[in-house]
């Protein structure tokens, strides 16, 4: 039996992912995850509400980190620079987890319920970022727009990074998307000329 709670949690996550890959998410039970980790189902439920939560185990740590990054940036000249620093910092936190995140994304994409939970998580994060931006002095409408753009940018970069096998970091993928946001907003509407 693991001696430390943090070791138990990590073992449960590792066991769950191994089973999800081996036999599929839907075919994996909490009992199987606990047994693979060498603990009881009761111990599992001390760490996680359900097996869905195992896939989102890092969220409790990452969201406060993102909020702290946004709240802590003091040397940015404008909102874009502030978001670039905060999202770059978040990207760095993801960097060592590329393989695990890729597995997680494939599992989520094959389960409608998990995809819904992922969207709900993103909405919760976006609200939290909006509130943090308001606390920093941004008007609510501006904060909502910045949060939405930031999440679209980061999510697109994350999916692109996970789908490729290049040596670029997630931060590289995030950085490349900032100029594209401005370019996309300034492009003419296709087929609208001459109307």
Task: Describe it.
The protein has 195 residues and is mainly alpha-helical. The protein folds into 2 domains: 49 residues, Homeodomain-like (Arc Repressor Mutant, subunit A, Orthogonal Bundle); 129 residues, Tetracycline Repressor, domain 2. The radius of gyration is 19 Å and the shape is globular. The longest helix has 24 residues. The chain starts with a helix and ends in a 9-residue tail after the last helix. The protein has 10 helices and no strands. It is 75% helix and 0% strand.
Question: Which descriptors would you attach to this protein?
Answer:
195 residues, Tetracycline Repressor, domain 2, 10 helices
Walk me through the topology.
Elements lengths: L4 H19 L6 H8 L3 H7 L3 H5 L3 H14 L6 H16 L3 H12 L2 H24 L4 H24 L6 H17 L9
Helix pairs in contact: 1-2, 5-6, 5-8, 6-9, 6-10, 7-9, 8-9, 9-10
Summarize the structure.
With 195 residues, the chain is mostly helical.
CATH architecture of the largest domain: Orthogonal Bundle
What is the strand tally?
0
The helix-strand sequence is HHHHHHHHHH
Instruction: Describe the main β-sheet briefly.
Output: none
Question: Which structural class is indicated by helix and strand composition?
Answer: mainly alpha
CATH fold-level assignment of the largest domain = Tetracycline Repressor, domain 2
CATH superfamily of the largest domain: Tetracycline Repressor, domain 2
Broad shape? globular
Beta-strand portion reads under 5%
Distance between the termini: 72 Å
